[in-house]
Design goal:
Layout: E1 9-12, H1 18-28, E2 32-38, H2 61-66, E3 70-75, H3 80-90, E4 95-98, H4 104-107, H5 112-118, E5 123-128, H6 143-150, H7 170-193, E6 197-202, H8 203-210, H9 212-221, E7 242-245, E8 251-254, H10 259-265, H11 277-282, H12 284-295, H13 300-309, E9 314-316, H14 320-324, H15 327-332, E10 335-340, E11 344-349, H16 373-379, H17 384-392, E12 396-397
Parallel strand pairs: 1-2, 1-4, 2-3, 4-5, 5-6
Antiparallel strand pairs: 3-12, 7-8, 8-9, 10-11
Helix pairs in contact: 1-7, 6-8, 7-8
Length: 401
């Protein structure tokens, strides 16, 4: 099967979420991603989990989610011999990805200038929380912190409660997409010019860019967003845009639809008194309460059937398990699995993109720490004796499958 990025070799020094998700997306497209982990424990995400439980009794769901289709080599980056080996590998590599705090890798001799000295065509993608300079450069760039700084948390939740961060690592995941966007653009530019370059991506800038319409609204309309006390789905929107309760304990989202169509469908003509744009915004909490009282007369499936028949923009609200079983999700094949040497069968989200000639595939599970170190170094010309010497010196960790 053809692979869109076959022949592209990536030295991946990244850890946690942002960088690993980016390189997983590239690996799904066929890139040869060599995950360079620290000797011993490897990627910090290997130590983190949900529910205080481990997949297969030992493996992190966080790590398993973002590291398929890669090979791992676990090295002591402070070792002079390891530095020599990596720079030799860099001569035939295409891309370096890292998301350490600014300056950390450069101090160890793995900055952009170090790689460019041995390979002028190298593309070096650097991820961080706040960029590589400025008043926050030394602060931890964690996802929830970024959501708060960028304004997303303040836009989410009820007005009579605190700001609420999204229930997923959105800043990191958007940062990953920006890494991929930059790397693919740089690869195309290099095909035309032969020149590599440095790419800088940071979480705060990425999330602000993805809040583009919110910034344009506030900065140009002379108003600030104020969260409503009801279930209105966006602080800048009028009712009925929001989430509503149903009789059986479910919830339904209702988006942009003519208000008259909604109250006619619900059999609630008394709501006609609210039917103008200014009133729907000014009294949106009151309107939400009135509409919510009507939606609670129906079970979730019954309400959805009525609303969809009237061409009202709506959908059921799923939890994660319900989403995995949703008919459209199943039809798209968005839940798949791979076999892991320790965790067994791991159910995962499938690649989201479809391509007619070069479809992404899952061919490798997330690796064990340094699992592929010997084969990777052999591919780059090291002898069995040299590899054994690295292990004996403690400069390389190899976990056996």
């Amino acid at each position: 099967m053809n692979k869109a990025l076959e022949g592209v070799t990536i030295l991946d020094f990244s850890h946690l979420l942002q960088g690993p998700f980016a390189t997983q997306l590239l690996a799904d497209m066929g890139a040869n991603v060599i995950k360079v982990e620290r000797a011993g424990g490897g990627d910090m995400f290997r130590t983190m989990t949900f529910f205080a439980k481990w997949v297969g009794g030992s493996e992190s769901p966080n790590f398993l989610a973002w590291n398929r289709n890669k090979r791992s080599i676990a090295l002591n980056l402070k070792s002079r011999r390891v530095h020599e080996i990596i720079m030799e590998m860099a001569k035939s590599a295409d891309v370096v990805v890292q998301n350490f705090r600014p300056g950390v890798l450069a101090k160890l001799g793995y900055g952009y200038d170090d790689f460019r000295a041995v390979n002028p065509r190298i593309i070096y993608c650097s991820g961080s929380g706040y960029g590589e300079a400025g008043p926050y450069v030394d602060r931890p760039g964690q996802d929830m912190l970024i959501q708060g700084l960028a304004g997303l948390s303040a836009n989410t939740g009820r007005g009579d409660g605190p700001p609420i961060p999204a229930g997923a690592g959105l800043a990191d995941q958007i940062g990953a997409m920006n890494m991929v966007y930059g790397i693919l653009s740089a690869l195309y530019y290099r095909e035309k010019t032969g020149k590599g370059q440095k790419i800088e991506v940071n979480l705060l800038a990425g999330l602000i860019a993805h809040l583009g319409q919110e910034f344009v609204g506030v900065l140009n309309l002379g108003r600030d967003f104020v969260r409503p006390n009801s279930g209105i789905g966006h602080p800048g929107m009028q009712a009925p845009f929001g989430v509503y309760e149903t009789r059986d304990g479910g919830h339904v989202s209702i988006a942009m639809s003519p208000f008259k169509t909604l109250y006619d469908t619900l059999g609630a003509p008394q709501l006609a008194v609210y039917d103008d744009l200014e009133t729907l915004f000014r009294k949106r909490d009151e309107v939400w309460e009135k509409v919510n009282a009507e939606t609670r007369r129906f079970d979730k499936d019954e309400l959805l059937e009525k609303l969809l028949a009237a061409d009202i923009w709506c959908a059921g609200v799923n939890d994660i398990r319900q989403a995995s079983e949703d008919p459209q999700v199943r039809f798209m094949g968005m839940i798949t699995s791979y076999e892991h040497p320790r965790a067994g069968t791991v159910r995962v989200a499938a690649p989201a993109i479809r391509m007619s000639e070069t479809p992404p595939t899952i061919e490798r599970p997330a690796p064990l720490v340094g699992q592929h170190g010997r084969e990777i170094l052999a591919e780059f010309g090291l002898s069995a004796e040299e590899i054994a010497a690295l292990e004996a010196a403690g400069d390389m960790t190899v976990a056996e499958a």
